[in-house]
Specification:
mainly beta, OB fold (Dihydrolipoamide Acetyltransferase, E2P), globular
């Protein structure tokens, strides 16, 4: 049976079969290496030495994790080929393999015997400073052990629980030494028992794979966590670095120093720092030189992002400062390093209803607000947008921050604040707190320059106390005002239009409620039945003089003339028939008409709708 080489795999290669050896296997349990297994990781190698990374997702661990052992050879099919990860790659490969619910694993019959035992890509000790902070690929090194310290509990800087560590010192063939620190379970598992004899000290050559180069307090060191593996005295004679080590230290007696772990410093318990809770208006009034050094708590809502400001920056992996563009990328002016990683730099305007101000946050704090790593958001950037959707989506979210004053506030009128920590998150709000027009809000140039008095810091005077904020209108406005009153004398009459009496040509009037009234020849109105349809047509020949009219449901205030009260019906919603008082004469109607040509007879109403006439008797 023919198998496909790992180097020949491509995306959507659903029917490929591979026969590989598992050269490495580890379980990822989170940054502190103390949680549940999140996924199992494998490094596979075919019989020609090609290697590829593979991953078993958490939901499939029960199906495959116990059936795959390190150093065993398997035939694998029905897997998914995907693009390799952008970070923490164990090997140099363009693609990777994901196990799926359809993946099948069997033991092959008569597999080739040329599978490599180790998979590595060595980095010399001289090149290690150039990869400090680089998380795109793990580092593999080869050296001899010259010192081993005991297990020591260390509090990691990311705030996790104390974790065990073990420190080693490695030496290469040229005599360069570099420290290596193992973390978590790797620190407890590492031991040289069985490979080193104190009575006959011989050099112990070790191959470390899956490490990262980091820096702490100005010292570079190798770090080994869950992905780290080691092999004592590996059989790799074709590697020049290994040949140099064997030739250089093969016959020497090298004693390994066993250092005791440093005693844990006695830390006196300190009471938790309590920050004072203030409104944003009060923070804007504090002089920068009198701002509390431990910060103040303030609950605000992100109102908008500051435009034309980049939301990320290249950060030096060695010193953390911002890098500047260089001929071949970015370089740090402080330490000269060219190793950098992208970090968040969020600049936004926040409001709490009493004021608004610019705020800035970096790195992990910004990632907590956005909810995604910066590398993932960078892949979604489009050229025609100022901010990606993930960045723009933080507007209207409410938080309680611990704020400190920025350095820029010490020499400018602007007041801006640094977000030191996030105390609470309240999610997206339905409305952003608005500031009353003309209030003393922060308009990016706060005029206060002198230090306020003690009473001014704690409370504001009654004269400067803010009025209640107006109700925020974030709903759809009504379609039209509730009632519109139009005097009848200002509304031009609508002439009646004859309509042919045919079924297809019936005039339909879109009225809410239609009533039809008939007026007799003597001028006295009489109520007829309600119309069954919106709009009606009079087809009776004996009612040729009868007019169909529609009136509107808005009544003007009564007007007094010659001691008599008259009701004039205005134009609004169509609901009935316009009526006038029986004692209103034709002369009074003519006097109230705006022009003679609009004058109607006494039997007509002041306001008419275009309703069909009855066909006259011929």
């Amino acid at each position: 049976m023919s198998y496909k080489l790992l180097s020949a795999l491509r995306l959507n290669d659903h029917y490929a079969r591979i026969c590989v050896r598992v050269t490495r296997k580890w379980e990822y349990r989170g940054p502190a290496d103390d949680g549940p297994v999140l996924h199992a990781d494998l490094v596979l190698a075919d019989h020609e030495g090609n290697s590829m990374y593979a991953e078993i997702p958490q939901e499939l661990l029960a199906d495959y994790n116990d059936h795959i052992q390190e150093s065993h050879i398997y035939e694998i099919r029905r897997f998914r080929v995907a693009n390799a990860k952008s970070f923490y790659n164990a090997v140099d490969a363009r693609f990777m393999i994901y196990f799926t619910i359809h993946t099948q694993i069997v033991n092959p019959t008569n597999p080739p015997t040329t599978y490599p035992r180790y998979t590595y890509s060595l980095t010399s000790f001289e090149q290690l400073p150039m990869v400090v902070g680089n998380v795109q690929k793990f580092v593999d090194v080869l050296g001899i052990i010259v010192e081993i310290n005991g297990v020591e509990m260390v509090q990691p800087p990311n705030g996790h629980a104390p974790t065990p560590t073990k420190k080693l010192i490695l030496r290469d063939a040229s005599g360069l030494e570099t420290p290596l620190t193992l973390w978590g379970q790797r620190a407890e598992q590492f031991s040289i028992n069985g490979v080193y004899n104190n009575d006959d000290p011989r050099p112990v050559i070790v191959l470390f794979v899956g490490c990262l180069m980091k820096t702490f307090q100005g010292q570079d060191y190798l770090s080994g966590s869950s992905a780290c593996k080691w092999y004592f005295n590996p059989d790799i004679p074709d590697v020049p670095e290994a040949e140099e080590l064997y030739n250089r230290y093969g016959d020497e007696r090298i004693e390994i120093r066993h250092g005791a772990p440093a005693p844990a410093p006695v830390v006196q318990p300190q009471p938790p720092v309590q920050q004072e809770t203030r409104y944003l208006q009060d923070l804007l009034a504090i002089d920068p030189y009198e701002f509390p050094q431990n910060g103040c708590r303030c609950t605000v809502t992100i109102a908008r992002l500051v435009p034309h400001v980049s939301w990320w920056f290249p950060s030096c992996v060695r010193c953390g400062t911002s890098c500047t563009p260089d001929s071949d990328g970015y370089a740090c002016r402080s330490c000269g390093s060219k190793n950098y990683r992208h970090k968040y730099k969020l600049l936004f305007v926040a409001s709490d209803g009493t004021g608004e101000a610019e705020m800035i946050c970096f790195g992990q704090l910004a990632q907590r607000i956005i909810g995604k790593p910066v590398q993932q958001v960078l892949r979604t950037v489009r050229r025609n947008e100022d901010f990606p959707p993930d960045i723009a989506g933080i507007v209207s979210h409410k938080y309680t921050f611990v704020l400190t004053i920025t350095n820029q506030s010490f020499y400018t009128r602007n007041r801006s604040f640094m977000v030191n920590s996030i105390v609470a998150s309240y999610g997206r709000q339905r409305a952003i707190p608005q500031i009353e027009t003309g209030s003393s809000s922060h308009q990016l140039s706060h005029p206060t320059s002198s230090a306020p008095s003690a009473s001014a810091k704690n409370s504001t005077s009654s004269s400067s106390r803010r009025a209640p904020q107006p109700t925020m209108r974030h709903y759809t406005p009504p379609r039209s005002p509730a009632t519109t009153q139009i005097p009848a004398q200002d509304a031009p009459p609508l002439d009646a239009v004859d309509t042919p009496i045919t079924y297809s040509a019936r005039k339909r009037l879109n009225c809410d409620t239609t009533e039809i009234e008939e007026e007799s020849d003597d001028g006295n109105p009489k109520r007829a039945r309600p119309a069954k349809m919106k709009g009606a047509t009079n087809t009776s020949e004996n009612q040729s003089s009868t007019r169909k009219r529609l009136t509107y449901d808005v009544t003007e205030p009564d007007e007094e003339s010659d001691g008599e009260n008259k009701k004039i019906t205005g134009l609004a919603k169509m609901k009935g028939i316009a009526e006038t008082s029986e004692d209103q004469s034709a002369n009074e109607l003519a006097r109230k008409r705006p022009s003679p040509e609009h004058t109607k007879t006494s039997s007509q109403k002041s306001i008419e709708c275009k309703a069909p006439r009855s066909q006259k008797n011929k």
